Each structure stands twice: as C-alpha cells, then as structure tokens.
Amino acid sequence: MNPARGSLLSIEHLEAAEILRLLKFARRMNPDKPRPLLKGKRVLLLFYEASTRTRSSFEIAAKSLGAYTVLIQAIGSSIEKGESLLDTGYTARAVGADIIVIRHPNAGAPYIMAQHIDVPVINAGDGLHEHPSQALLDAYTILRNKKTFKGLQVAIVGDIFHSRVVRSASHLLSKFGVKVILCGPPELVPDIATTLAPGVRVTRYVEDALRGTDVVMLLRMQKERLAGLKIDLPEYIARYQMTPARLKMAKKDAIVMHPGPIIRGLELTSEVADGAQARILEEVRNGVPMRMAILARAMGKMR
Amino acid sequence: MTSAAKNRSSLLIKGGHLIDPAARIDAPMDVLLKDGRVAEVSAPNKIKGGSDEKFDARGFIVAPGFIDLHVHLREPGQSHKETIATGTAAAAAGGFTSVCTMPNTIPVVDSVEWVDWLRQPERGAVVNVFAIAAATRASKGATLTDFRALHAAGAIAVTDDGKPILDDSIMREALVLGGELNFPVVQHAEDTRMTEGCSMNAGARSFRLGLRGMTAAAEATIVERDVQLAMHIPNARLHVAHLSTADALKSVRRAKRAKARVTMEVTPHHFTLTDEDMRDYDSNYKMNPPLRSASDLEAILVALADGTVDAIATDHAPHASHEKDMEFERAAFGITGLETALALAITKLHREKHIPVSRIVELFTAGPARCFDLRGRGSLARGSVADVTVFDPKKKWTFDAAKSHSKSKNTPFDGWQLTGKVVATIVGGKIVYSS
Q1: Where does residue B269 rank: exposed (0-12), middle (13-18), buried (19+ CB within 10 A)?
Q2: pTM, 2 dp
Q3: Which CATH superfamily is domain A133-283 in?
Q4: What pLDDT shows up at residue A227?
C-alpha cells in the first residue's frame, strides 16, 4: 500500500516545488487568527519519545485549525503493555483519526505505519532518520531572515551522526542550492555524511565552517543515542563550542539557529544563546504556522 | 540423517542432460535408480532391462540432488515460523534433497538427545535432514559441547550460528577437537561487540536512512582470526558461513592458497542484492550478515566464478509476519530462500554473468558435499545415494511468496520474474516433488 495522500514522511522524497508551496502557505497561517480549515477533524499525536517543542507545536497548530487532538504517549498507554506499532496504528484508525502525527525512536517507523494504514501520516521525527517539520520550520526561519536561499552557506556544528534534523535540513537546503558544511569530530561527523546530498561538505575545523557562513546551526550532543561512543566533552567544548569570539568568524549578519533543546555551556555559551544573532526562539514560534501548513496539506486544504 | 522410507523400486530417468561435476559428466545420459542407489548411468537408450517407473527428462538438466548447508527449520521450539515438515517441503520444491539444519532452536541442539529427536520419523521430513549441532553448551560460547558424542550420533558439523564464538581460546579448542574428529567447525563471522544495535550494512545508505550499520570489519576480523587459527592447527576444518564481504574473502583466499582446510558458502541474496536495494524500511531486506555494498557483491561474483566459493547455501530463515511487519530496527533478521535459490543462481549468475550451469550445479552438489563430507551424495556416480534434482534452466516463472511451501513468507523476491525452475526432486529414488 502506498502512503495516504498528504503524508509527510521525509524531506528527501519531497519535491522542491512542494516545499516552496508549504513555505508559502505557512506565511498565511497565524495561530492568533485561527482558521477552521480542519474543523471537526481528529489529529492523533502518537509520541513514542519525549518531546516538548514538536508536540506542543503540532497540538497548537492543529487546534488553531479547528481540529481535535488526542495525545498517545508510549508511557501510560497500551504501547507499554507490548502493543505493536501496527496494532496501535489500526486502533488509531478505528477510533477515527484523520491524521496521525508520529514521533518514534526507530528510523522508518512512520513508513511502516503509512504502508499499512490509510490515513495521512506525518513524521514528527524517526530515530536518526528525518525530522521533516523541523527542517521546514528552519527553512521558513532562514527565509524570513535572509529573504532567499540563493548563494547561502549554512554551517551545522555538532553531533551530525545522531541528528535527524541534519539529515532533513541537508536534503532541504541542497534542493535549493544552499552550501551545507557539516562540522565536528570524526566520531560525530563521519566522512560518509557528504554522500547525503549534493553540495554537502565535511570539515573538522570550526573556523573553516564559519568563514563566509550566513547561518550557523548548532546541535545538542545526544547523550541518549551515543550508544557507547566515548566523547571527550572538555575537548569538544574547546574545539567546537560556539562563543561570541568564534561567531565573529561568520558573516556579520549571520544568524544562529538550534533545534533545541539547548545545553548552555556545552555546544554554545549563554552569550550566544541570548545574543542578538540568535533565532532559537523564533524557530520555536515559526514551528506553529509551519505545522499548520503541514496539517492543512495532509487534509488537502493547502489552497 | 533422516530419510524417506526405504525404496525398493526402480526409476529410470530418461532423455535428460546429466551434469555431474564430481564425475566430470556434462552430456545426455540416462540414469537408473534402484533400491535407493544409482544403479547405472549410460548414454541415451543404452540402459537395458525394465524399470518400475520412468521419468521423462527431455529438455531438462539432471543433476545430483542439491544440498543446502545452511537452513533454519526452527524445530524444536519455534514451530510457528517453520517445522521440519514445512521446511523440507519448501526444500523439495527448491530442488534440495538434503538440508543441514542449524542448532539455534529452543532449546539449542547441543546434545545427542536433540540430534536424535530431529531424525525421528514423526518430524515428517520429506528430504534428508542433517543436524549441525551447537559448538558450545546452549551456544553461550563458554564450554564446548561433547563433539565426540555428537559426531558419533550423526551430527555433521558444529556451530554457534547467530552467536559467533568470540573467545579466541574457545575457538581454538573447537578447531583442535574438531580437527581430531574430522569435524567441521562452522562460524557465523561477526564480531558482535562491534554490531550492537545495527540492522544493516554500514555505508552511505545506512547513514542516509539513519540506521546503525554493521561494518565489513566486524565480519572480516573474525574470519581473519579463524583462518589464522585454522592454518596453524593440524587437521582443523573451518567452514565460513554466508560470507558477505570482499575483505573476509581475502582471508579465505589466503587460507586456500596455503592449503588449509577452510571452506565457505555464500547465499543467493548476497550475490543478488546490495544495501541500496531496500526500499521504505522493508524488513524483508533485513538479514544477518546484511546486504552489502556493490563492490562486495562484485567480489563475491568473482569468487563464485573462479572456484573460491565452495557452496551456495540459502540461510533459509523463516519468521512469522508479526516478527517482521514492524520497525526495521526491531524486526527479526533473516529471509526465506529455499524455493528461490536455483532460479536466482540461473538468473543472476548464469544469464547475467555467464557462469556455466555446470559450475552452478557444482555449487549446489559436489561443493557442499565436500564441505561436510556427505558421503555418497553430491554425485550420481554408480552406487551413490539416489538423490536427484531435475530442472529446466530455461523456464521463466514468477515467484509468488503466498504460494510458498514454507510456513513463512518473509522474502524480498516476491513477484520476481526468474529463469530456471525445478521440475522434480528425487530423494532415495522416490519423487518427493514434481512441478
């Protein structure tokens, strides 16, 4: 079975024109001016993994469109009792879900759901694979600040290997010709990462990554996914932490982004997190209209 | 070994083209089977005297019965996946007259009692089943099983398949004792300390999909260690199961040049698919060892053609749908393979890569028989066991997993158009499958 129309499983297989349509439509969405595009629809939020931003943002987006939301978390549901992913999906369908938003620790889980259940499935982050709504809201944030993708250079610093945000962002930015530089030590940034998409480059030196860069994207060290990998944190901080001095190496008007949650004193200092160039909270704000657009598209209402 | 009921009748296979690599025959021949043995092999129409039954093999290849060195029949303990009856029915449909069953069952086949149990007629085997026993107790890798007793009871090799022997001294002990008994030690080569949480090959594809990858090194380092041990222990016999990487192949080549008693098998899926072929997290592409890179596949094709590979083995690993239709990382490893092996070999190796059909037959017959010393099998020389596989190398067909004889349908080859089909499978002189 093919995924239901309106599903959003990855950025990799989303066409550039469709991405632009989503970004354009998101600009017309405003949670403070609710529009009943999804009036009476049921949006099921299926969260197998902890989340603050993504969950609340999807919930507010759905409600701003007039939909009901039901939250199912692994803890406190039948999932805890051993119910399989597909059985949970069938249950969601039977209970009358019109859209399933799924966050899952295993890569590809939304695909399995979408292949068996005839309801639009939205990937809200699957393991190390992709986080499409995050990449879209980041693109939305970049466009609001930089007007165009043309000629941009984006440096992404940190734990690339364990980041689904990076995979989605690299695919998205690459589709619009943006130069993407991935920066960090080999354990976190394997050379194979350059095969992700055209125009993706790897460097070990933060100076190299920042030179001429318009957007600096920082990532959290994902302790829960390191799986035995030994990272020397003081060494990492010495080489890669974003400080005001380092940030000066980027373009003067460079912006600082971070998908959150941020860990002050690790991947960035408080001065950078709270500085004039930071757009970290703007990203969170932009998440709501962006997800309104994603949900409207799922129901064929993106017109 | 379990065997179908003793056969007192005679069967004349007429008009076929016999390929018997062990006997160096590749010519039109008639074959007379009598009392469960090969009674005569002669040029067409030269066999005198009558027979109870005749089989018209015109237009077909007649070959020694195929031998699969590596199957999981799942009994005892996991009969929801497969039973000896259903697994051997699938084997018969795939042209296999003998299968060697792996001991990673519940409980593990690590005692004479369980080896005997596998051979009881109640199991309902329709082809010969040879037991490979566990190399260590409960396959825990700590204490060797009683090789001598297992060997005497009829087990044909030992292995801890799926749970490789990592401890150097245990592996050395196994090879020493195996060498004394002329008992092959089969290793699933994987340094599991390097592959925890991994579900596919490490490479560009696994990075893109966000799946942790098993490196080629995790296989190659164990093969290299085993080969080093085997080269320095008198009479040691090492069999490398389902080899999948170019690096590991280098170790085996070196061992063979040094005349060490090292043999190896490869699976049809490893010579057919690469890690780029999986779509949409389909767990029918998940097995261990995983599908590897295009350069690994190329190296395997070279080794199949040049004689380095001893046998094609399926690693038939049935699983119920509820163990496969789930998150890729959580789904069980393994795919079925008995019914597609010959057709994949003909389609991929012969038609695409021009490997002669006689070499393919060798990889299914004389090659595997040599690996595990299956006497009287792997050839149709006079006096051999009357196990015969008749196949049509030109027949085009579409594999339909739903119609598989196996209890499980976990295969990536469902709906594939293939060339080469089994016409009849004869075990001990008796036709157990015909299409």
Answers
A1: buried
A2: 0.95
A3: Aspartate/ornithine carbamoyltransferase (3.40.50.1370)
A4: 62
